[in-house]
Amino acid sequence: MKIAIVGATGLVGGEMLKVLAESQLPVTEIIAVASAKSVGQKVRYKDQELTVVSVEDAIAARPAIAIFSAGGSTSLALAPEFAKAGITVIDNSSAWRMSPDHQLIVPEINAHTLTAADKIIANPNCSTIQMVVALNPLYKKYGIKRIVVSTYQSVTGTGKKAVDQLNNERAGTEGEKAYPHPIDLNLIPHIDSFLDNGYTKEEMKMVNETKKIMGDDNIKVTATTVRVPVIGGHSEAVNVEFERDYDLDEVRQLLSTTEGVVLQDDVKNNVYPMPLFSKGRNEVFVGRLRRDDTQPNTLNMWIVADNLRKGAATNAVQIAEYLLKNNLV
Ligand code: 2RA
């Protein structure tokens, strides 16, 4: 199977190439694609050096699937071109996520809704993916009324320029800035742009995408998203109120038997998820489980994942695996 990676020179594109190299997909050729200024550059896939090609050359090569990680406006302009050529697009930008005509997929939760007619499939926002993966088994057992989430998001979610800003600030060297403030020795309660309601787009992505993925508009979600000087992954403090009461041991049992989730909840031995140790891993790590005693049926939890992996590349590759396994491409 031929797969195109559109945005192959970016941070997520690079992670896509690594995750594809580790996957069981029967890849015959990877087509690395980027904007005109990057054509001719080299990217690494397994032990090969791939030469970056143009969008036109990529479409002409007729891959079965194109995984996009090139930003919203590129996706709006180019994904339909690929789809018209019969290529199934899995898109990592926010361009199609809330469109009623497009699917927003986290394979563990709603891949069964995909059909061969879905030619542009949206990959959710990183901070949403890791939260819903951890909450889904609990949602199925207890129902969810309300989620209050605060995030601690890695600079890798912004891209290379942000990682450079952090490293430059640490080294005391000058360089381009991704943020309007210093990020080292700081945190910035501002991810993506502000909306008229006072929330950021990132916060509203968590609200709206959660409902769409879970297929339940009644779940109330409120979010505060914060950028922190961390590289390995995103962390989230989640307070979740269930419809029905739960048993903490049963919650532990459910999470420890959920595919793609790793329970790290042994505080006596200082075991809890941390972003430093999620880097390069495909799973979602969950810990610090404790009852919120201030109201009924409510649980506090801490959720960590590598945002470039399960929050982006791994989820996209899992969608591709599902499409192939179910003869949808
Ligand atoms: C971030 N959610 O971390 C974004 C990346 N998709 O900024």
UniProtKB/TrEMBL annotation:
Positions contributing to phosphate binding: R97
Domain Semialdehyde dehydrogenase NAD-binding as annotated: residue spans: 2-117
PANTHER family associated with the record: ASPARTATE-SEMIALDEHYDE DEHYDROGENASE (PTHR46278:SF2), DEHYDROGENASE, PUTATIVE-RELATED (PTHR46278)
Pfam families assigned to the protein according to its UniProt record, in alphabetical order: Semialdhyde_dh, Semialdhyde_dhC
Gene: asd
EC number: 1.2.1.11
SMART domains: Semialdhyde_dh
Chain residues that bind NADP(+): T9, G10, L11, V12, K37, S38, N307
Name of the protein in its database record: Aspartate-semialdehyde dehydrogenase
Entry binding sites for substrate: Q153, R227
Pathway: Amino-acid biosynthesis; L-methionine biosynthesis via de novo pathway; L-homoserine from L-aspartate: step 2/3; Amino-acid biosynthesis; L-lysine biosynthesis via DAP pathway; (S)-tetrahydrodipicolinate from L-aspartate: step 2/4; Amino-acid biosynthesis; L-threonine biosynthesis; L-threonine from L-aspartate: step 2/5
Catalytic activity: L-aspartate 4-semialdehyde + phosphate + NADP(+) = 4-phospho-L-aspartate + NADPH + H(+)
Keywords: Amino-acid biosynthesis, Diaminopimelate biosynthesis, Lysine biosynthesis, Methionine biosynthesis, NADP, Oxidoreductase, Threonine biosynthesis
Family the entry assigns: Belongs to the aspartate-semialdehyde dehydrogenase family.
